[in-house]
Amino acid sequence: MAKLFSKQSLRRVLIWILPALSFVLIKLIYLTCKKKFYIEKNGSATPSIYVFWHGELLLVAFAYIHYAKRTSLDAMISRHFDGELIARLIRLFGGGVMRGSSSKGGTAVLREALKSLHKGRDIGITPDGPRGPKHSVANGVAALAMLKKVPIITINCRPSSYWKMKSWDEFCIPKPFSTLEFYFGNPFSVEGLEMEEAKRTIQERLLVHAI
């Protein structure tokens, strides 16, 4: 009995149940809400790096599909347990995943991302994930954009009403029947910039419509 209810056993059960349940609940939230999309220049014709804050990622898959009209996005997900749950959820949306972060598996996941961009796929990154601090920008997204010389596109989700979790990222859960405002930044390049300047540019653009 002890083994049946061990932490490892519980995690295996959660990995199978939570992603499917979350997928249904997230879809219900999205369907009940009114949507507004703010797009000045659509850059989806070119393989790009899509960036969004960790606390706003819940409905980003829907935003990307609306914007790009496809599901060819490979998301960079940490190797933590929470990352496994998110990875399975992303696959349910039709996207791909790359496992690693700036703290673990950074070099390997960067190589995977370069290969994905070379194949014409898009990359999705939360620059302040998986551990924060909130609204910070790690080196990975800037390094990837500079190495492959691809544009960066910011995505923000601003619900009119939401629950905010007491986590480091103040994770946002939109309330059903609220209004969702999705902001897509114009594609921009960090080519030729110093690392700190590139990170600051990404941060400033993502903060314009942040919650």
Describe it:
With 211 residues, this protein is of the alpha/beta class. The protein has one domain (7-207): Cobalt-precorrin-4 Transmethylase, domain 1. The protein has 6 helices and 9 strands; from the N terminus they run H-E-E-H-E-H-E-H-E-H-E-E-E-E-H. It has a 7-stranded mixed beta sheet, with helices on both faces. Strands 7-8 form a two-stranded antiparallel sheet. Helix 3 (81-92) links the parallel strand 3 and strand 4 (96-99). Helix 1 packs across helix 3 and helix 4 (106-118) runs parallel beside helix 5 (139-148). The chain is globular and about 50 Å long. The model has no long low-confidence stretch (mean pLDDT 91).
Q: Can you count the helices? A: 6
The share of residues in helices is 25-40%
CATH class: Alpha Beta
Give the beta-strand count: 9
Taking strands numbered 1, 2, ... along the chain, how are they ordered across the largest sheet? 1-9-6-2-5-3-4
As a whole number of angstroms, the C-alpha radius of gyration is 17 Å
User: Strand fraction band?
Assistant: 15-25%
